[in-house]
Amino acid sequence: MYVDGLRVGQNTYVATELSGMDQVQILKGPASINFGLVAPGGMVNLVTKRPEAESFARASMTYGSYSLKEGTFDLNYSPNNSEKGAFRLNGRISDQDDPTDYVYFKNFYISPSYNFDLGDNTDLSVIASYQHREYIRQQGLPVIGTLKDNPNGSIDRSLYIGDPNFGKYEADVYRTGYTFKHTFDNGWNFNQNFAVQKTEMDGKAVFARTGSNFWAKDKQGEIDYTTISRRNNSRHQVIDNLSFAIDNRLNKQFDLYGMQHDINIGVDAFQEKSDYTNDKYDIGDLNIYNPVYGQNVTLKQNVRDINRLKYLGLYLRDRIQLNDQLLLSLSGRQDWAQTQTTSLVTGNASKQSDNAFTGSASVMYTLNDIVAPYVSYATSFTPNSGTDVNSNPFKPEKGKQVEVGMKLQSPDQRIQGAIAWYDLKRQNVLVTDTANSGYKVQRGEQLTRGIETELSAEILEGLKLTAAYTYTIDAEISKDANASNVGKALDNIPEHAYSLSARYKFDPSSKLGWYVGGGFRGETYKTVDGLDVHVPGYTVFDTEAGYDAERWGAQLAIRNLFDKDYYTGALNENLVTLGNPRQINFTVKFNY
Protein backbone atom coordinates (compact mmCIF):
# COMPACT_ATOMS: atom_id res chain seq x y z
CA MET A 1 0.00 0.00 0.00
CA TYR A 2 1.25 3.46 -0.94
CA VAL A 3 -0.09 6.91 -0.02
CA ASP A 4 0.88 9.82 -2.29
CA GLY A 5 3.53 7.62 -3.86
CA LEU A 6 5.14 6.77 -0.51
CA ARG A 7 5.23 3.42 1.21
CA VAL A 8 3.08 2.85 4.31
CA GLY A 9 4.63 0.94 7.22
CA GLN A 10 4.44 -2.86 7.13
CA ASN A 11 3.64 -3.47 10.78
CA THR A 12 0.72 -1.12 11.52
CA TYR A 13 -2.28 -3.51 11.34
CA VAL A 14 -4.55 -0.49 10.71
CA ALA A 15 -6.47 0.05 7.48
CA THR A 16 -5.91 3.39 5.75
CA GLU A 17 -8.93 5.71 5.85
CA LEU A 18 -10.36 6.06 2.34
CA SER A 19 -12.68 9.03 2.96
CA GLY A 20 -9.64 11.33 2.98
CA MET A 21 -8.54 10.14 -0.45
CA ASP A 22 -9.21 11.88 -3.74
CA GLN A 23 -8.20 8.87 -5.84
CA VAL A 24 -7.65 5.15 -5.39
CA GLN A 25 -5.18 4.16 -8.09
CA ILE A 26 -5.10 0.43 -8.80
CA LEU A 27 -2.00 -0.08 -10.90
CA LYS A 28 -1.44 -3.42 -12.59
CA GLY A 29 1.57 -4.80 -14.38
CA PRO A 30 5.19 -3.69 -13.88
CA ALA A 31 4.59 -1.00 -11.24
CA SER A 32 7.59 -1.81 -9.03
CA ILE A 33 9.77 0.90 -10.56
CA ASN A 34 7.11 3.61 -10.52
CA PHE A 35 6.50 3.33 -6.80
CA GLY A 36 9.56 1.67 -5.31
CA LEU A 37 9.50 -1.70 -3.61
CA VAL A 38 6.28 -3.40 -4.70
CA ALA A 39 5.44 -6.70 -6.34
CA PRO A 40 5.13 -6.49 -10.14
CA GLY A 41 1.63 -7.99 -10.07
CA GLY A 42 0.17 -4.62 -9.15
CA MET A 43 -0.31 -2.21 -6.27
CA VAL A 44 -2.62 0.40 -4.78
CA ASN A 45 -1.63 4.05 -4.47
CA LEU A 46 -3.94 6.36 -2.52
CA VAL A 47 -3.92 10.06 -3.41
CA THR A 48 -4.98 12.33 -0.55
CA LYS A 49 -7.40 15.22 -0.93
CA ARG A 50 -5.64 18.55 -1.55
CA PRO A 51 -6.84 22.16 -1.58
CA GLU A 52 -8.65 23.18 -4.77
CA ALA A 53 -9.12 26.46 -6.63
CA GLU A 54 -12.83 26.80 -5.81
CA SER A 55 -14.22 27.30 -2.29
CA PHE A 56 -16.89 24.82 -1.21
CA ALA A 57 -18.49 23.11 1.76
CA ARG A 58 -19.80 19.54 1.55
CA ALA A 59 -21.31 17.23 4.13
CA SER A 60 -23.16 13.92 4.23
CA MET A 61 -25.04 11.77 6.71
CA THR A 62 -25.64 8.05 6.30
CA TYR A 63 -27.90 5.71 8.25
CA GLY A 64 -28.12 2.03 7.51
CA SER A 65 -28.22 -1.61 8.47
CA TYR A 66 -26.60 -2.83 11.68
CA SER A 67 -27.02 0.58 13.32
CA LEU A 68 -24.74 2.34 10.85
CA LYS A 69 -24.33 6.03 11.63
CA GLU A 70 -21.83 8.01 9.59
CA GLY A 71 -21.09 11.66 8.97
CA THR A 72 -18.57 13.27 6.63
CA PHE A 73 -17.50 16.83 5.87
CA ASP A 74 -15.21 18.45 3.32
CA LEU A 75 -14.41 22.18 3.52
CA ASN A 76 -12.25 24.05 1.01
CA TYR A 77 -11.37 27.76 1.24
CA SER A 78 -9.61 29.50 -1.64
CA PRO A 79 -9.24 33.26 -1.04
CA ASN A 80 -7.65 33.89 -4.45
CA ASN A 81 -9.73 31.50 -6.59
CA SER A 82 -6.55 29.50 -7.00
CA GLU A 83 -5.08 26.33 -5.58
CA LYS A 84 -2.23 28.44 -4.22
CA GLY A 85 -2.96 29.77 -0.75
CA ALA A 86 -5.97 27.44 -0.41
CA PHE A 87 -6.87 25.43 2.71
CA ARG A 88 -8.88 22.21 3.00
CA LEU A 89 -10.27 20.25 5.92
CA ASN A 90 -12.09 16.93 5.60
CA GLY A 91 -13.14 14.21 8.00
CA ARG A 92 -15.40 11.30 8.85
CA ILE A 93 -16.96 9.77 11.95
CA SER A 94 -18.74 6.42 11.89
CA ASP A 95 -20.20 3.78 14.19
CA GLN A 96 -21.56 0.41 13.05
CA ASP A 97 -22.39 -2.98 14.50
CA ASP A 98 -21.92 -6.23 12.61
CA PRO A 99 -24.00 -9.33 11.76
CA THR A 100 -21.68 -11.19 14.14
CA ASP A 101 -22.55 -10.81 17.82
CA TYR A 102 -20.36 -8.35 19.78
CA VAL A 103 -18.45 -7.21 16.68
CA TYR A 104 -18.45 -3.46 15.96
CA PHE A 105 -16.44 -0.73 14.25
CA LYS A 106 -15.95 2.89 15.30
CA ASN A 107 -13.86 5.36 13.37
CA PHE A 108 -12.84 9.02 13.56
CA TYR A 109 -10.73 10.74 10.91
CA ILE A 110 -9.70 14.34 10.24
CA SER A 111 -7.23 15.77 7.72
CA PRO A 112 -6.17 19.40 7.16
CA SER A 113 -4.07 20.47 4.17
CA TYR A 114 -2.66 23.75 2.88
CA ASN A 115 -1.10 24.92 -0.38
CA PHE A 116 1.58 27.58 -0.02
CA ASP A 117 1.82 30.39 -2.57
CA LEU A 118 5.49 30.31 -3.60
CA GLY A 119 5.17 31.66 -7.13
CA ASP A 120 4.28 30.28 -10.53
CA ASN A 121 7.11 27.73 -10.72
CA THR A 122 6.88 26.26 -7.22
CA ASP A 123 4.17 24.22 -5.48
CA LEU A 124 4.21 23.12 -1.85
CA SER A 125 1.36 21.24 -0.18
CA VAL A 126 1.39 20.23 3.48
CA ILE A 127 -0.97 17.43 4.53
CA ALA A 128 -1.68 16.01 7.98
CA SER A 129 -4.18 13.49 9.30
CA TYR A 130 -5.31 11.80 12.49
CA GLN A 131 -7.31 8.58 12.67
CA HIS A 132 -8.76 6.71 15.65
CA ARG A 133 -10.23 3.23 15.23
CA GLU A 134 -11.93 1.02 17.80
CA TYR A 135 -13.32 -2.39 16.95
CA ILE A 136 -13.83 -6.03 17.84
CA ARG A 137 -12.73 -8.21 14.95
CA GLN A 138 -14.76 -10.96 13.32
CA GLN A 139 -13.00 -14.33 13.57
CA GLY A 140 -14.90 -16.62 11.26
CA LEU A 141 -16.89 -19.80 11.84
CA PRO A 142 -15.91 -23.50 11.90
CA VAL A 143 -15.94 -25.31 8.56
CA ILE A 144 -17.78 -28.21 10.21
CA GLY A 145 -21.17 -26.69 10.86
CA THR A 146 -21.09 -24.34 7.87
CA LEU A 147 -19.53 -25.80 4.71
CA LYS A 148 -19.62 -29.32 6.10
CA ASP A 149 -22.31 -31.02 8.16
CA ASN A 150 -21.99 -31.05 11.93
CA PRO A 151 -23.82 -33.92 13.69
CA ASN A 152 -25.11 -31.37 16.20
CA GLY A 153 -26.67 -29.11 13.55
CA SER A 154 -25.77 -25.93 11.71
CA ILE A 155 -23.95 -23.13 13.50
CA ASP A 156 -25.65 -19.77 13.99
CA ARG A 157 -24.09 -17.33 11.49
CA SER A 158 -24.03 -14.62 14.17
CA LEU A 159 -21.79 -16.69 16.49
CA TYR A 160 -18.69 -14.94 17.84
CA ILE A 161 -15.96 -17.46 18.66
CA GLY A 162 -13.73 -15.01 20.54
CA ASP A 163 -14.52 -13.32 23.85
CA PRO A 164 -15.94 -9.77 23.95
CA ASN A 165 -14.25 -9.16 27.32
CA PHE A 166 -10.86 -9.90 25.75
CA GLY A 167 -11.36 -8.74 22.19
CA LYS A 168 -11.23 -4.96 21.73
CA TYR A 169 -8.70 -3.21 19.50
CA GLU A 170 -7.90 0.50 19.63
CA ALA A 171 -5.54 2.32 17.29
CA ASP A 172 -4.36 5.87 16.68
CA VAL A 173 -2.60 6.88 13.47
CA TYR A 174 -0.83 10.24 13.10
CA ARG A 175 0.53 11.21 9.68
CA THR A 176 2.04 14.38 8.29
CA GLY A 177 3.99 15.18 5.17
CA TYR A 178 4.36 17.37 2.15
CA THR A 179 4.65 17.35 -1.62
CA PHE A 180 7.01 19.82 -3.27
CA LYS A 181 7.47 20.60 -6.96
CA HIS A 182 9.68 23.17 -8.68
CA THR A 183 10.00 23.78 -12.42
CA PHE A 184 13.37 25.09 -13.59
CA ASP A 185 13.83 27.40 -16.55
CA ASN A 186 15.57 24.64 -18.52
CA GLY A 187 12.47 22.42 -18.40
CA TRP A 188 13.52 20.09 -15.61
CA ASN A 189 11.03 19.44 -12.78
CA PHE A 190 12.06 18.52 -9.24
CA ASN A 191 9.51 16.61 -7.14
CA GLN A 192 9.89 15.66 -3.48
CA ASN A 193 7.36 13.75 -1.37
CA PHE A 194 7.89 13.22 2.35
CA ALA A 195 5.78 11.66 5.10
CA VAL A 196 6.18 10.56 8.70
CA GLN A 197 3.61 8.26 10.29
CA LYS A 198 3.18 7.05 13.86
CA THR A 199 0.81 4.21 14.72
CA GLU A 200 -0.16 3.13 18.23
CA MET A 201 -2.30 0.02 18.53
CA ASP A 202 -3.47 -1.99 21.55
CA GLY A 203 -5.59 -5.05 20.87
CA LYS A 204 -6.74 -8.27 22.45
CA ALA A 205 -8.20 -11.32 20.77
CA VAL A 206 -9.07 -14.91 21.60
CA PHE A 207 -8.25 -17.32 18.78
CA ALA A 208 -9.24 -20.92 18.22
CA ARG A 209 -6.40 -23.41 17.99
CA THR A 210 -5.31 -24.63 14.59
CA GLY A 211 -4.90 -27.93 12.79
CA SER A 212 -5.94 -31.13 14.55
CA ASN A 213 -6.16 -29.28 17.88
CA PHE A 214 -9.09 -27.12 16.73
CA TRP A 215 -11.83 -29.29 18.25
CA ALA A 216 -11.72 -29.95 22.01
CA LYS A 217 -12.12 -33.50 23.28
CA ASP A 218 -14.68 -34.59 25.85
CA LYS A 219 -13.92 -36.48 29.08
CA GLN A 220 -13.70 -39.74 27.18
CA GLY A 221 -11.11 -38.25 24.82
CA GLU A 222 -13.54 -38.12 21.92
CA ILE A 223 -14.45 -35.21 19.63
CA ASP A 224 -18.17 -34.48 19.56
CA TYR A 225 -17.90 -31.28 17.48
CA THR A 226 -19.61 -29.05 20.03
CA THR A 227 -16.58 -27.30 21.53
CA ILE A 228 -13.57 -25.55 20.02
CA SER A 229 -10.24 -25.40 21.82
CA ARG A 230 -8.66 -22.02 22.58
CA ARG A 231 -5.89 -23.17 24.94
CA ASN A 232 -2.74 -21.02 24.93
CA ASN A 233 -3.98 -19.14 21.88
CA SER A 234 -5.20 -15.75 23.06
CA ARG A 235 -3.18 -12.66 22.21
CA HIS A 236 -2.53 -9.21 23.60
CA GLN A 237 -0.92 -7.24 20.80
CA VAL A 238 0.62 -3.80 21.32
CA ILE A 239 2.29 -1.93 18.46
CA ASP A 240 4.22 1.33 18.53
CA ASN A 241 5.30 1.99 14.96
CA LEU A 242 7.18 4.97 13.53
CA SER A 243 8.06 5.29 9.84
CA PHE A 244 9.65 7.87 7.54
CA ALA A 245 9.43 7.89 3.75
CA ILE A 246 10.88 10.25 1.15
CA ASP A 247 11.05 10.26 -2.63
CA ASN A 248 13.14 12.72 -4.69
CA ARG A 249 12.67 12.80 -8.43
CA LEU A 250 13.90 14.82 -11.43
CA ASN A 251 11.73 14.75 -14.53
CA LYS A 252 12.03 16.21 -18.02
CA GLN A 253 10.35 15.76 -21.37
CA PHE A 254 12.47 16.37 -24.47
CA ASP A 255 13.05 15.30 -28.07
CA LEU A 256 16.21 13.47 -29.11
CA TYR A 257 16.91 12.15 -32.62
CA GLY A 258 13.23 12.49 -33.48
CA MET A 259 12.08 10.53 -30.42
CA GLN A 260 10.11 11.96 -27.50
CA HIS A 261 11.50 11.14 -24.05
CA ASP A 262 9.85 11.41 -20.63
CA ILE A 263 12.66 10.66 -18.20
CA ASN A 264 12.61 10.30 -14.42
CA ILE A 265 15.71 10.04 -12.23
CA GLY A 266 15.23 9.58 -8.51
CA VAL A 267 16.21 8.33 -5.10
CA ASP A 268 13.80 7.13 -2.43
CA ALA A 269 14.29 5.97 1.14
CA PHE A 270 12.20 4.39 3.86
CA GLN A 271 12.84 3.72 7.54
CA GLU A 272 10.57 1.98 10.03
CA LYS A 273 10.86 1.03 13.69
CA SER A 274 8.17 -1.14 15.25
CA ASP A 275 7.93 -2.06 18.93
CA TYR A 276 5.72 -5.15 18.83
CA THR A 277 4.26 -7.01 21.83
CA ASN A 278 2.44 -10.28 21.15
CA ASP A 279 1.83 -11.86 24.57
CA LYS A 280 0.17 -15.28 24.68
CA TYR A 281 -2.67 -16.07 27.10
CA ASP A 282 -4.65 -19.16 28.05
CA ILE A 283 -8.46 -19.24 28.15
CA GLY A 284 -11.08 -21.96 28.39
CA ASP A 285 -12.76 -23.73 25.49
CA LEU A 286 -15.99 -22.50 23.88
CA ASN A 287 -19.16 -24.48 23.23
CA ILE A 288 -20.34 -23.16 19.88
CA TYR A 289 -23.96 -24.16 20.59
CA ASN A 290 -24.05 -22.67 24.09
CA PRO A 291 -21.23 -20.10 24.30
CA VAL A 292 -20.16 -18.76 27.69
CA TYR A 293 -18.10 -15.57 27.59
CA GLY A 294 -16.12 -13.70 30.22
CA GLN A 295 -13.79 -16.56 31.11
CA ASN A 296 -10.56 -15.85 32.97
CA VAL A 297 -7.36 -15.45 30.97
CA THR A 298 -3.90 -16.40 32.21
CA LEU A 299 -0.61 -15.04 30.87
CA LYS A 300 1.54 -17.86 29.46
CA GLN A 301 4.29 -16.21 27.42
CA ASN A 302 5.77 -12.74 26.91
CA VAL A 303 6.81 -11.84 23.37
CA ARG A 304 8.22 -8.39 22.66
CA ASP A 305 10.32 -7.54 19.63
CA ILE A 306 11.82 -4.43 18.09
CA ASN A 307 11.69 -4.63 14.29
CA ARG A 308 13.69 -2.21 12.15
CA LEU A 309 13.58 -1.83 8.39
CA LYS A 310 15.66 0.52 6.23
CA TYR A 311 16.02 0.79 2.49
CA LEU A 312 17.53 3.13 -0.06
CA GLY A 313 16.78 2.99 -3.77
CA LEU A 314 18.10 4.67 -6.92
CA TYR A 315 15.96 4.52 -10.03
CA LEU A 316 15.83 5.61 -13.66
CA ARG A 317 12.77 5.45 -15.89
CA ASP A 318 12.33 6.57 -19.50
CA ARG A 319 9.20 6.49 -21.65
CA ILE A 320 10.29 6.80 -25.28
CA GLN A 321 7.80 7.58 -28.05
CA LEU A 322 9.79 6.12 -30.95
CA ASN A 323 7.20 7.23 -33.50
CA ASP A 324 3.47 7.88 -33.68
CA GLN A 325 2.72 4.21 -33.06
CA LEU A 326 5.52 2.70 -30.98
CA LEU A 327 6.00 3.42 -27.25
CA LEU A 328 8.94 1.92 -25.35
CA SER A 329 9.25 2.06 -21.55
CA LEU A 330 12.48 1.12 -19.78
CA SER A 331 13.32 1.31 -16.10
CA GLY A 332 15.84 0.08 -13.60
CA ARG A 333 16.51 0.51 -9.91
CA GLN A 334 19.13 -0.53 -7.38
CA ASP A 335 18.01 -1.16 -3.80
CA TRP A 336 19.85 -1.66 -0.54
CA ALA A 337 17.80 -2.95 2.40
CA GLN A 338 18.48 -3.89 6.00
CA THR A 339 16.16 -5.60 8.48
CA GLN A 340 16.84 -6.18 12.16
CA THR A 341 14.78 -7.88 14.87
CA THR A 342 15.67 -7.82 18.57
CA SER A 343 13.79 -9.75 21.25
CA LEU A 344 13.43 -7.68 24.43
CA VAL A 345 12.56 -10.87 26.33
CA THR A 346 15.46 -13.15 25.36
CA GLY A 347 17.94 -10.57 24.09
CA ASN A 348 18.38 -12.52 20.85
CA ALA A 349 18.89 -10.41 17.73
CA SER A 350 18.91 -11.11 14.01
CA LYS A 351 20.11 -8.81 11.25
CA GLN A 352 19.93 -9.20 7.52
CA SER A 353 21.24 -7.01 4.69
CA ASP A 354 20.20 -7.43 1.08
CA ASN A 355 20.57 -5.61 -2.20
CA ALA A 356 19.17 -6.18 -5.66
CA PHE A 357 18.88 -4.67 -9.11
CA THR A 358 15.41 -4.82 -10.64
CA GLY A 359 13.88 -3.41 -13.77
CA SER A 360 11.12 -3.49 -16.31
CA ALA A 361 10.65 -3.15 -20.04
CA SER A 362 7.50 -2.79 -22.07
CA VAL A 363 6.55 -2.09 -25.67
CA MET A 364 3.15 -0.90 -26.88
CA TYR A 365 2.25 -0.57 -30.56
CA THR A 366 -0.79 1.48 -31.55
CA LEU A 367 -2.20 -0.29 -34.59
CA ASN A 368 -4.98 2.24 -35.11
CA ASP A 369 -7.43 4.38 -33.14
CA ILE A 370 -8.94 1.24 -31.61
CA VAL A 371 -6.29 -1.38 -30.81
CA ALA A 372 -2.91 -1.13 -29.03
CA PRO A 373 -1.19 -4.45 -28.17
CA TYR A 374 1.67 -4.52 -25.67
CA VAL A 375 4.15 -6.81 -23.93
CA SER A 376 6.00 -6.20 -20.66
CA TYR A 377 8.50 -7.84 -18.33
CA ALA A 378 9.30 -6.78 -14.76
CA THR A 379 11.26 -7.94 -11.73
CA SER A 380 10.82 -6.88 -8.11
CA PHE A 381 12.50 -6.93 -4.71
CA THR A 382 10.76 -6.31 -1.36
CA PRO A 383 12.44 -6.65 2.07
CA ASN A 384 10.38 -8.31 4.81
CA SER A 385 10.78 -7.29 8.44
CA GLY A 386 10.12 -9.56 11.41
CA THR A 387 10.77 -13.21 12.23
CA ASP A 388 8.91 -16.49 12.27
CA VAL A 389 7.87 -18.36 15.41
CA ASN A 390 11.45 -19.64 15.80
CA SER A 391 12.94 -16.11 15.58
CA ASN A 392 14.38 -16.72 12.11
CA PRO A 393 14.50 -13.48 10.05
CA PHE A 394 12.47 -13.38 6.87
CA LYS A 395 14.19 -13.31 3.50
CA PRO A 396 13.27 -10.54 1.03
CA GLU A 397 10.52 -11.29 -1.43
CA LYS A 398 11.52 -11.41 -5.09
CA GLY A 399 9.30 -11.61 -8.14
CA LYS A 400 9.10 -11.53 -11.90
CA GLN A 401 6.20 -11.05 -14.27
CA VAL A 402 5.54 -11.38 -17.98
CA GLU A 403 2.41 -9.75 -19.36
CA VAL A 404 0.98 -9.69 -22.87
CA GLY A 405 -2.13 -7.71 -23.54
CA MET A 406 -4.17 -5.36 -25.64
CA LYS A 407 -5.81 -2.03 -24.90
CA LEU A 408 -9.00 -1.15 -26.76
CA GLN A 409 -10.77 2.15 -27.34
CA SER A 410 -13.52 3.25 -29.68
CA PRO A 411 -12.82 6.33 -31.84
CA ASP A 412 -15.28 8.42 -29.79
CA GLN A 413 -13.74 7.05 -26.52
CA ARG A 414 -17.16 5.93 -25.25
CA ILE A 415 -15.91 2.35 -25.05
CA GLN A 416 -12.61 1.46 -23.38
CA GLY A 417 -11.26 -1.91 -22.41
CA ALA A 418 -8.25 -4.13 -21.93
CA ILE A 419 -7.34 -7.80 -21.95
CA ALA A 420 -4.10 -9.27 -20.61
CA TRP A 421 -2.41 -12.61 -20.02
CA TYR A 422 0.04 -12.67 -17.13
CA ASP A 423 2.61 -15.05 -15.68
CA LEU A 424 3.74 -14.08 -12.17
CA LYS A 425 6.30 -15.77 -9.93
CA ARG A 426 6.93 -14.64 -6.35
CA GLN A 427 9.60 -16.08 -4.05
CA ASN A 428 9.71 -15.97 -0.24
CA VAL A 429 6.10 -14.81 0.09
CA LEU A 430 4.83 -14.20 3.63
CA VAL A 431 1.69 -16.16 4.47
CA THR A 432 -0.22 -16.83 7.68
CA ASP A 433 1.30 -19.52 9.90
CA THR A 434 -1.72 -21.78 10.33
CA ALA A 435 0.03 -23.68 13.13
CA ASN A 436 0.92 -20.59 15.20
CA SER A 437 -1.61 -17.76 15.45
CA GLY A 438 -0.12 -14.30 15.12
CA TYR A 439 2.93 -15.46 13.14
CA LYS A 440 3.95 -15.68 9.50
CA VAL A 441 5.88 -18.22 7.43
CA GLN A 442 7.49 -17.99 4.00
CA ARG A 443 6.77 -20.07 0.92
CA GLY A 444 9.56 -20.87 -1.51
CA GLU A 445 7.84 -19.82 -4.73
CA GLN A 446 4.29 -19.06 -5.81
CA LEU A 447 3.20 -19.30 -9.43
CA THR A 448 0.12 -17.51 -10.77
CA ARG A 449 -1.05 -17.42 -14.38
CA GLY A 450 -4.25 -15.98 -15.69
CA ILE A 451 -6.23 -13.70 -17.96
CA GLU A 452 -7.78 -10.38 -16.94
CA THR A 453 -10.32 -8.34 -18.87
CA GLU A 454 -12.06 -5.07 -18.08
CA LEU A 455 -14.50 -2.89 -19.98
CA SER A 456 -16.21 0.46 -19.49
CA ALA A 457 -18.75 1.68 -22.00
CA GLU A 458 -21.42 4.31 -22.49
CA ILE A 459 -23.59 2.22 -24.78
CA LEU A 460 -26.48 4.71 -24.73
CA GLU A 461 -26.59 8.34 -23.77
CA GLY A 462 -26.80 8.33 -19.98
CA LEU A 463 -26.21 4.56 -19.61
CA LYS A 464 -22.74 3.49 -18.47
CA LEU A 465 -21.56 -0.10 -18.02
CA THR A 466 -18.49 -1.41 -16.20
CA ALA A 467 -17.43 -5.05 -16.37
CA ALA A 468 -14.45 -7.11 -15.23
CA TYR A 469 -13.50 -10.77 -15.45
CA THR A 470 -10.47 -12.74 -14.25
CA TYR A 471 -9.68 -16.33 -15.16
CA THR A 472 -6.94 -17.89 -13.03
CA ILE A 473 -5.28 -20.65 -15.02
CA ASP A 474 -2.74 -21.67 -12.35
CA ALA A 475 -2.26 -20.56 -8.75
CA GLU A 476 -0.02 -22.91 -6.82
CA ILE A 477 3.11 -23.35 -4.74
CA SER A 478 5.77 -24.24 -7.32
CA LYS A 479 8.81 -24.52 -5.00
CA ASP A 480 9.19 -24.97 -1.25
CA ALA A 481 11.61 -26.37 1.31
CA ASN A 482 8.78 -28.66 2.39
CA ALA A 483 8.24 -30.88 -0.65
CA SER A 484 4.69 -31.75 0.47
CA ASN A 485 3.65 -28.13 -0.18
CA VAL A 486 4.67 -28.18 -3.84
CA GLY A 487 1.64 -28.28 -6.11
CA LYS A 488 -0.80 -27.08 -3.46
CA ALA A 489 -3.27 -24.43 -4.56
CA LEU A 490 -2.80 -20.91 -3.24
CA ASP A 491 -5.35 -19.99 -0.62
CA ASN A 492 -8.53 -18.11 -1.46
CA ILE A 493 -7.89 -17.56 -5.16
CA PRO A 494 -10.99 -18.34 -7.25
CA GLU A 495 -10.73 -19.80 -10.73
CA HIS A 496 -13.22 -17.22 -12.00
CA ALA A 497 -14.03 -13.75 -10.62
CA TYR A 498 -16.48 -11.42 -12.33
CA SER A 499 -18.47 -8.23 -11.91
CA LEU A 500 -20.89 -6.14 -13.95
CA SER A 501 -22.47 -2.83 -13.00
CA ALA A 502 -24.62 -0.26 -14.78
CA ARG A 503 -25.80 3.24 -14.00
CA TYR A 504 -28.46 5.19 -15.88
CA LYS A 505 -28.90 8.96 -15.58
CA PHE A 506 -32.33 10.13 -16.71
CA ASP A 507 -31.00 13.52 -17.85
CA PRO A 508 -27.49 12.89 -19.20
CA SER A 509 -27.11 16.52 -20.29
CA SER A 510 -27.04 17.65 -16.64
CA LYS A 511 -25.13 16.64 -13.52
CA LEU A 512 -28.42 16.97 -11.63
CA GLY A 513 -31.50 14.77 -11.57
CA TRP A 514 -32.44 11.14 -10.98
CA TYR A 515 -30.20 8.12 -11.50
CA VAL A 516 -30.46 4.38 -10.90
CA GLY A 517 -27.83 1.67 -10.88
CA GLY A 518 -27.21 -1.96 -10.17
CA GLY A 519 -25.05 -4.94 -10.87
CA PHE A 520 -23.63 -8.20 -9.64
CA ARG A 521 -20.30 -9.56 -8.45
CA GLY A 522 -19.12 -13.05 -7.74
CA GLU A 523 -16.48 -15.73 -7.62
CA THR A 524 -16.28 -19.46 -8.22
CA TYR A 525 -15.12 -21.87 -5.51
CA LYS A 526 -11.77 -21.52 -3.75
CA THR A 527 -9.39 -24.07 -2.27
CA VAL A 528 -7.97 -23.36 1.18
CA ASP A 529 -4.59 -24.43 2.54
CA GLY A 530 -4.24 -27.06 -0.15
CA LEU A 531 -6.54 -29.34 1.85
CA ASP A 532 -9.99 -30.81 1.35
CA VAL A 533 -11.67 -27.48 2.00
CA HIS A 534 -13.54 -25.85 -0.86
CA VAL A 535 -15.26 -22.52 -0.32
CA PRO A 536 -18.26 -22.46 -2.68
CA GLY A 537 -18.71 -19.74 -5.25
CA TYR A 538 -21.31 -17.02 -5.03
CA THR A 539 -23.03 -14.24 -6.95
CA VAL A 540 -24.61 -11.29 -5.16
CA PHE A 541 -26.54 -8.34 -6.56
CA ASP A 542 -26.39 -4.66 -5.61
CA THR A 543 -28.63 -1.74 -6.51
CA GLU A 544 -28.89 2.00 -5.95
CA ALA A 545 -31.10 4.97 -6.75
CA GLY A 546 -30.63 8.66 -6.07
CA TYR A 547 -31.36 12.27 -6.88
CA ASP A 548 -28.91 15.17 -7.14
CA ALA A 549 -30.08 18.78 -6.79
CA GLU A 550 -28.03 21.97 -6.88
CA ARG A 551 -27.41 22.08 -3.12
CA TRP A 552 -28.34 18.62 -1.90
CA GLY A 553 -28.67 15.00 -2.90
CA ALA A 554 -30.02 11.70 -1.59
CA GLN A 555 -29.20 8.07 -2.31
CA LEU A 556 -30.54 4.66 -1.32
CA ALA A 557 -28.08 1.78 -1.78
CA ILE A 558 -28.64 -1.93 -1.20
CA ARG A 559 -25.80 -4.44 -1.20
CA ASN A 560 -26.55 -8.17 -1.45
CA LEU A 561 -30.07 -7.37 -2.58
CA PHE A 562 -31.43 -10.91 -2.19
CA ASP A 563 -29.74 -11.49 1.19
CA LYS A 564 -27.68 -14.45 0.00
CA ASP A 565 -25.68 -16.43 2.55
CA TYR A 566 -22.13 -16.88 1.27
CA TYR A 567 -18.52 -17.16 2.35
CA THR A 568 -15.69 -14.95 1.10
CA GLY A 569 -12.83 -17.30 1.91
CA ALA A 570 -11.15 -19.08 4.79
CA LEU A 571 -8.56 -18.32 7.44
CA ASN A 572 -7.28 -21.91 7.50
CA GLU A 573 -8.60 -25.44 7.11
CA ASN A 574 -10.91 -25.01 10.12
CA LEU A 575 -12.38 -21.50 9.79
CA VAL A 576 -14.32 -19.74 7.03
CA THR A 577 -15.07 -16.02 6.73
CA LEU A 578 -18.60 -14.80 6.11
CA GLY A 579 -19.90 -12.53 3.38
CA ASN A 580 -22.08 -9.64 4.48
CA PRO A 581 -25.86 -10.14 4.44
CA ARG A 582 -28.18 -7.56 2.92
CA GLN A 583 -27.21 -4.01 3.86
CA ILE A 584 -29.44 -0.99 3.20
CA ASN A 585 -27.92 2.47 3.51
CA PHE A 586 -29.57 5.86 3.04
CA THR A 587 -27.38 8.93 2.48
CA VAL A 588 -28.22 12.63 2.40
CA LYS A 589 -25.55 15.07 1.20
CA PHE A 590 -25.28 18.85 1.08
CA ASN A 591 -23.19 21.11 -1.17
CA TYR A 592 -22.47 24.83 -0.81
TrEMBL record:
Topology relative to the membrane: Multi-pass membrane protein
Family annotation (PANTHER family): FERRICHROME IRON RECEPTOR-RELATED, FERRICHROME OUTER MEMBRANE TRANSPORTER_PHAGE RECEPTOR
Its BP terms in the Gene Ontology are: siderophore transport
Domain TonB-dependent receptor-like beta-barrel: start-end pairs: 116-561
InterPro entries recorded: Beta-barrel_TonB (IPR000531), Beta-barrel_TonB_sf (IPR036942), Plug_dom_sf (IPR037066), TonB-dep_rcpt-like (IPR039426), TonB_sidphr_rcpt (IPR010105)
Taxonomically, the superkingdom here is: Bacteria
Alphabetical GO CC annotations of the entry are: cell outer membrane
Instruction: Report the GO molecular function annotations.
Output: siderophore uptake transmembrane transporter activity; signaling receptor activity
Name its cellular compartments: Cell outer membrane
Q: Which residue positions does the secretion signal occupy?
A: none
Main location per UniProt? membrane
Q: What is this protein called?
A: Ferrichrome-iron receptor
Query: To which species is this protein native?
Result: Acinetobacter baumannii
Under the heading Gene3D superfamilies, the entry gives: TonB-dependent receptor, beta-barrel domain, TonB-dependent receptor, plug domain
